Amino acid sequence: MNTEILLGFLFYLALLAYIGWWANRYTKTEDQYFVGGRKVHVLAATLSDKASDFSGWLMLGYPGSAFKAGLGAFWAGIGCLFGTLADYVLIGPRLRIYAGKFRAITVPDYLEARLKDDTKLIRILSALIILIFMTAYVAAQFTAGGKTFAEGFGISDNTGIIITVIILTAYVITGGFFAVVWTDVVQAMFMLLTLIIVPFLALAEIGGLDKATQIIAQADPTKLDPFGGATGLAAIVFAIGYASWIVGYLGQPHIVTRYMSVEDPRKLRRPGIFISGTWTILVLWGAFFAGFLGFAMYQAGMLQVSDPEKVIPAMAVELMPGWLAGFVIAGIISAVMSTADSQLLVASSAIARDFYHKVLGKEVGKRQMVNISRLVVAGVALVGLWFALTGNKVVYEMVATAWGGLAVGFGPILTLSLWWKGVTKEGGIAGMAYGLVSEVILEAKVYGWAFNPDAPGFFGTIGSWFNGIPVFFINFFVTLFIIILVSLFTKPPEDVVRLHEEIFRKVPIEAGKKSITETRAKSQVENVAEFVLTRGLA
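RESULT FIELD:
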């Protein structure tokens, strides 16, 4: 069995190696290494966005949560779906327009230019937020890869982690953004097929959905309650705890960088929303039901699994021929790699470009900067490896913690800077500094990833008020308030305000070139994007 699984996986690995080799031919400059020269097709950018978003959390953490919580875990899927839509409505098109105007390669590039920060503090804070939380996020992906290899090939988790690190780091160093995007496209298809096939095989094995719910009801009736048996205010807190992922989407650099790379900002609306929305619904459905049905199989004695987060690889090995199980294992590793590669690339940009080049002012050639970035990728991977080997190895919690730090650090300032002309650099600095410090203290030292009353003194009182709600969900709105408050007491430069008004003012309907019906058939964002492109503003 293991030999057949290995053959299926090796075929997938060979495909990744070819993509890395092919992409290396198009990676000669810093701009190409980090955003693909801003020439990425919307289909590739969209699938890459979702593959980067749904990581080992989708293939291990979320099914494991459904295995443990039952129907209640479905709220997390709802949060992720609406978070995806929020990204494409609030962030994508406007960020692409601004990034084109400023020739921004990274999120810190954009924030520094948009807020006209000459102190370098925004870039330094951005680099610290990315380095701390992205490294933790990478460690979560390494852990997910290790668990998958362990379940599929009968090796230890730590050995699987090391194998994951070697494979992933190699092709990111080789190909840069092009390699990441096009491997993500392949990986998105692997993930989709895996999460469609596994639940249907489980249904056939167990004898249908009615039989599965009967087994689950006998084992634990609360797993069939969408609120986990909670009522009243506790039910609302339960739903928020799972659905809180929605606010995190607005601040994930490895996701929003995809929008900066797309060739045409107009295509981030209808085509982008349709592609990403359809893919998201299908994979979340599959991941949830894989964990839900996996619990039923486990209770019926049809499946042996030592860790709920290993339920999908265990089902693949149990239900499929060896060669097909190898492809499913590859699909799971795809989810891990499609996020970790993007995170490694963003982390390397924070150190090599944002700190070494921009803050320290080290002038180097474009090709040399690419080589420095590759060295940084290797360094970040080693740090992530250490955290993966020594951490708690619970993927859901590891991802939630890292996701929260990035959400609070970048989400409020990104959203406000794209939609409010009055936001100031002072507001941005205050909000980002608060987000960084508070997330490190509250998540790493006080509560963990969710509020609880076990913390001492005042923190215990706060924890009892929000018990069970992720720290980042409350902290996001606190940071938003701080940025708004400080911005109201300071003043943005007039030229920054004029630029924002010029780019995003309402576009008049012009008679002659197109009819009123044709113009109104497009969204205002699409009309603004067209106006900006034709006027040469981006």
